[in-house]
Design goal:
Elements: H1 3-8, E1 12-13, E2 20-21, E3 26-32, E4 36-40, E5 50-53, H2 56-65, H3 67-72, H4 82-103, E6 107-109, H5 111-119, E7 125-128, H6 134-145, E8 152-156, H7 161-168, E9 175-178, H8 182-199, H9 210-215, E10 220-223
Helix pairs in contact: 2-4, 4-7, 4-8, 5-6
Length: about 230
């Protein structure tokens, strides 16, 4: 068994593709009160679980095929809006993780502070509000490219300013940056799950290449230095 498999647990089978996957590459669902199907994105709820690939398309296909009922062998109420509901839960989970990183003192906000942290090469990730000005995003990208030790930095563009304000407890948050630390890694892991869920085709669970993700207006990774020839 691989080290990753030992860490994430035994493989589970997607009810849509019938392929075995790591739990990290799937979403678990359980039957909740009133026989209503409930997404268990943290994989902690009691009861028998049903697993679907980490993909909005796969969840939608499971609803369409009535795969949950067949797998559970019982009558269960499945929301027709289940793909959107899972998306909202994953987004909220990521925002909550950002709030935890902020409590750990790893987040700065404000264009000048973010630019300084990025340019100094001390940012593990930067965030630009999805409804912020494109000029600001461009300037942050320039700051990353001026860093003393060029490296690729995740640039998170999935959250609106109002969501960032709620997570950080500050007003007018358009730009933010995260310093390295466990809480930052926790946020990035949850953010990547959200991006994968939104961009993966049904049954596909490999992490989306940042360049491809940017083309789909979900996320991007900003190179902090010149490309090698």
């Amino acid at each position: 068994m691989s080290r990753r498999a030992e860490r994430e647990g035994p493989e589970r089978t997607c009810v849509v593709t019938r392929q075995g996957r790591s739990p990290e590459d799937l979403i678990r669902f359980v039957v909740g009160p009133g026989d209503v199907l409930v997404p268990d994105i943290r994989r902690k709820l009691p009861g028998r679980g049903v697993w679907v690939s980490l993909s909005a398309a796969a969840v939608g296909e499971a609803v369409k095929r009535r795969a949950f009922e067949r797998s559970l062998k019982t009558k269960v109420t499945v929301s027709p809006e289940l793909p959107a509901e899972v998306d909202a839960l994953l987004a909220r989970d990521a925002v909550q993780a950002l709030a935890m990183a902020n409590k750990a003192g790893l987040v700065v906000s404000g264009f000048a502070k973010v630019e300084a942290l990025a340019q100094a090469g001390r940012a593990a990730a930067v965030i630009a509000a999805s409804d912020g000005a494109e000029d600001g995003k461009r300037k942050i990208g320039q700051a990353l490219r001026r860093a003393p030790m060029p490296k690729e930095i995740p640039v998170v563009t999935n959250f609106a300013a109002a969501e960032l304000e709620l997570a950080l407890g500050r007003e007018h948050v358009i730009h933010a940056a995260l310093a390295p630390g466990p809480a930052t890694e926790g946020f990035l892991a949850r953010w990547r799950r959200l991006v994968r869920y939104r961009t993966n085709d049904a049954g596909e669970t490999a992490f989306i290449d940042p360049v491809e993700s940017d083309a789909r207006d979900q996320t991007k990774t900003e190179p902090a230095g010149p490309k090698a020839e």
